[in-house]
Amino acid sequence: MARTVDNNGIGALYATFEIDQTGAAYDLTIDNVGDAVSLSGNNEVDHGSDGGQLVGRLEHVCGGLATVQIAGVARFSVNTTKTAPAVGNGVVVDGAGKVYRAPAVDGAAGDPAGGNIARGSTLAVDNANHTCDVLLG
Fold this sequence. Notes:
Blueprint: E1 13-19, E2 21-22, E3 25-26, E4 36-41, E5 44-46, E6 56-62, E7 65-71, E8 73-77, E9 91-93, E10 99-101, E11 121-126, E12 131-135
Parallel strand pairs: 1-5
Antiparallel strand pairs: 1-7, 2-3, 4-5, 4-6, 6-7, 8-12, 9-10, 11-12
């Protein structure tokens, strides 16, 4: 899809989080900038687990701290082995820095305690480049 409108970054709001650690190593590094991330604890982020809730897009990493875009429009890579979102769909993380279409929920019984796991509203999908623009709210 040739984009004539660039949504990325519109209305962005950023927050600082600690980065989850495995042993002495941080779970996110500068190589992960641009990835989809999830909450892993109080004010702490990592890639999350497959099907987990998206908190935002990793924008900066320094000294065990992460700057994450938590609102506005963010562009994410789509996991090509999962179902890509369509316009209007919410998304979830794949646990490796990408997103995909949130699964269907079977009525109230399908919602986890605390509410539906899907986040955002997909505004545009670029199937050629495997990206989507998501309004995080």
